Amino acid sequence: MWRAGRLYWVDFQDARMGPVTYDVASLLRDSYVDLDEEMEGKLVEEFRRAVAPTESPGSFERRFELTCLQRNLKALGTFGYQAVVRGKREYLEFVPRTLAHVRRNLWRHGTLGNAAPVLARHIEECRA
Predict the structure, then answer these.
(1) With contact defined as beta carbons under 8 Å apart, do 1 and 11 qualify?
(2) Residue 67: which H helix or E strand, with range?
(3) Is residue 99 part of a domain?
(4) What number of other Cβ atoms are within 10 A of residue 105's Cβ?
(5) Please, are residues 116 and 106 in contact by the beta-carbon 8 Å criterion?
(6) Domain-embedded: residue 53
């Protein structure tokens, strides 16, 4: 992948089968990335048209948000483990952005709000 005129490797994470939304969630709502919401929406829709053209945009977007929520919660656990158990505190700088993604995942679409009360008991940033 090219970025800022430099070549980077893309890690295929064991190339396992997963939901069609996993790759686009990994790229667009990563803990290390902030994208403009309008640009993100256009890219998600372009991806949907390419890989799931018969699925409604709303259905695909809901699955995208669920995948993002799962990935971001997993990332928070990884960052905590790296910092507390392995002493790699440099991961902590990505916690605020990841929490912002989680909050956005929960509250952007009312259908994900069911998870919010459970998470809010443990994560202040998930409260309305």
Answers:
(1) no
(2) helix 57-84
(3) yes
(4) 25
(5) yes
(6) yes
CATH number at residue 45: 3.90.1200.10
Q: What percent of the chain has pLDDT over 70?
A: 89
Residue 13, in any domain of the structure: no
Instruction: Output the CA–CA distances (angstroms, integers) from residue 120 to 7, 63, 82, in the order listed.
Output: 40, 21, 23
- State whether residue 93 is helix, strand or coil: helix
Residue-wise pLDDT for 27-54, tens only, equals 999 898 888 989 999 999 999 999 999 9
Q: What pLDDT score was predicted for residue 44? A: 96
Domain holding 44, by residue range, is 19-126
pLDDT of residue 105: 81
Count the domains in the chain. 1
Residue 111 has pLDDT above 90, yes or no: no
**C-alpha distance across the termini of the chain, in Å:** 37
DSSP lists the bridge partners of residue 3 as 6
With 70 as the cut, is the pLDDT of residue 13 above it? Answer: no
Q: How many Cβ atoms are within 10 Å of 55's Cβ, its own excluded? A: 14
